[in-house]
Automatic annotation (TrEMBL):
This is Small ribosomal subunit biogenesis GTPase RsgA. The keyword ATP-binding does not apply. The gene is rsgA. It is found in: Cytoplasm. It comes from Nocardioides szechwanensis. One of its GO terms (cellular component) is cytoplasm. Its cofactor is Zn(2+). Residues 1-14 have a biased composition (Basic and acidic residues).
Length: 329
């Protein structure tokens, strides 16, 4: 895909030659381009890391309307010194391994890619202040499974409330979880983040930036306060920012608080694929079975009746399936 843009490269004076053999994806369009990774985007300006230096860049014209998002691996030309006022150009975006997408809500036809190339979706939820929103967690889980990302449930503010009730809801789904509290030990979190790129999502005020600051001492992310009357955060973080974990042990992406997680882009039949054990039981389902609660002859019901499926796991799966299409959050 990437090279399609190269063919319309208006910055090359030479007309594109007819290709005699197919180009491979790896073939660079620009010989002098260097590799970079997008750490943040601000009004059409991209901050990249190139050889450990922060480098400002803009999109080169050949990329056209193609979006460039945090986490994208890119090729850049021009001034990559990182000096004040220097500006380079992104000429190529490497094919993405994963894309985290959401729509503003379920009626919004515009699907936005929030982050590229993250392997893990950290669903950050405060146990109190603001109150947990199980529906939002469910919807984020659906997005993670749909994107082929490993979900991690991160329950913050355990100094304010007990995590057990919330955890019991997610146990049967087999989702990994960590619990954090003010001043608490972060070893379990570090272990889960180690060696991969993770993106944090959650409502405003749940403590995403607080956690990033604790994990990356040089991060200096702004932290807000939660309104004691409304229980809402103040949307302190306004753009996604990717940071390297100490010891080059992976990457963490802080994102602005979300109010909803629009899933209009998720096809219902993809969710079951994230649960191979359940998927196996749906082989004899009638054509077009959604495996939902109200399906008359679903294999999941057969399996529960026969005792081969854990009823709690089936109902948790169905809760997620239903969460996909309920536009409450
Ligand atoms: N009691 C308690 N407060 C916490 C904890 N973690 C974060 N906070 C507080 O929660 C408030 C919001 O924290 P932020 O880190 O700004 O939250 P955020 O998720 O980044 O919010 P947005 O950027 O608005 O999306 C701050 O006042 C933090 O001090 C915790 O474990 N316990
Ligand atoms: Mg924040
Ligand atoms: Zn079925």
């Amino acid at each position: 895909m990437t090279n399609r843009y190269g063919e319309h490269d208006q910055e090359h004076y030479e007309r594109p030659r007819r290709r005699t053999r197919p180009r491979t994806k790896e073939r660079p369009t620009y010989d002098d381009a260097v590799d970079g990774v997008v750490v943040t985007v601000d009004r059409g300006r991209y901050t990249l890391l190139v050889d450990g230096r922060k480098v400002m860049a803009m999109k080169a014209r050949p990329l056209g309307r193609k979006g460039v998002v945090v986490g994208d691996r890119v090729r850049v030309v021009g001034d990559v010194s990182g000096n004040d006022g220097s500006l380079s150009r992104i000429v190529e975006v490497t094919e993405r391994v994963t894309t985290l997408r959401r729509t503003a809500d379920d009626d919004d036809p515009v699907e936005r890619i929030i982050v590229a190339n993250a392997e893990q979706l950290v669903i950050v939820t405060a146990l109190a202040d603001p109150e947990p929103q199980p529906r939002l967690i469910d919807r984020a889980l659906v997005a993670a499974f749909d994107a082929g990302m490993q979900p991690l449930l991160c329950l913050t503010k355990a100094d304010l409330a007990d995590p057990e009730t919330l955890l019991s809801t997610y146990r049967s789904l087999g989702v990994h979880w960590v619990v954090t509290e003010r001043g608490g030990d972060l070893d379990a979190v570090r272990e889960r983040l180690s060696g991969k790129t993770s993106v944090m999502v959650g409502s405003s005020g749940v403590g995403k930036s607080t956690l990033v600051n604790a994990l990356v001492p040089t991060a200096h992310r702004d932290v807000g306060v939660v309104n004691t009357v409304t229980g809402r955060g103040r949307h302190t973080s306004t753009s996604a920012y990717m940071l390297e974990l100490p010891g080059a042990d992976g990457w963490i992406i802080d994102t602005p608080g979300i109010r909803s997680f629009g899933l209009a882009h998720v096809q219902p039949w993809t969710l079951i694929e994230a649960f191979p054990d359940l998927d196996e039981m749906t082989e004899d389902c009638p054509r077009g079975c959604t495996h939902g609660d109200d399906e008359p002859e679903c294999g999941l019901d057969v399996a529960v009746t026969e005792g081969t499926a854990d009823p709690e796991r089936v109902s948790s799966f169905r809760r997620l399936l239903a969460a996909r299409s309920v536009s409450v959050y």
